[in-house]
Amino acid sequence: ETGVTQTPRHLVMGMTNKKSLKCEQHLGHNAMYWYKQSAKKPLELMFVYNFKEQTENNSVPSRFSPECPNSSHLFLHLHTLQPEDSALYLCASSQGYRTSGTPGQFFGPGTRLTVL
Amino acid sequence: GENVEQHPSTLSVQEGDSAVIKCTYSDSASNYFPWYKQELGKRPQLIIDIRSNVGEKKDQRIAVTLNKTAKHFSLHITETQPEDSAVYFCAASNLDSSYKLIFGSGTRLLVRP
Question: What tens digit of pLDDT does each residue of A71-91 get?
């Protein structure tokens, strides 16, 4: 349960605020992911990083800005969000693409975000 | 684009009965199919996965079957217990292009004691 950690676990922010979500993995993985989970779309992929390089941006609005400084850390910077952005934001990690490891993704506990 | 459909959206079974959840995928190049269990308020957890070179995989009370021709795969849980109650997600990926997972919409399983 401690392989992938996320902070904060809960966040309430106004539409004009700027905040950041943090994810850290201790599994020796090289790929990291951001997902949005809401009642409308249960598990929606947002971004993929493989060996610190962004390999997928699933048409995410620019008010969400990811950052991956190294293979163990992933951030999601938030600014000028809308109430419909309220959701659970999940981070996951896996072995890097084109490595010999298992492709299974392991999730963090998520950050419950509420935008007022 | 790639799509994974999952049925049913909700499933209620009596304790001890079997439960089956089915998924279909659209990308014929998909070759990796994991299943995740998400209990209320918790993170999704990988419970079993199968690659396209295998037709069936079993782990104690859970098993997954794959029909590549029909492009569908299923999760089977036997001798269900109340602690099996959760939301189950199927997913598909083409490991030859990326490790990106396309998830189904989830099945809420309720096991009645």
Answer: 999 999 999 999 999 999 999
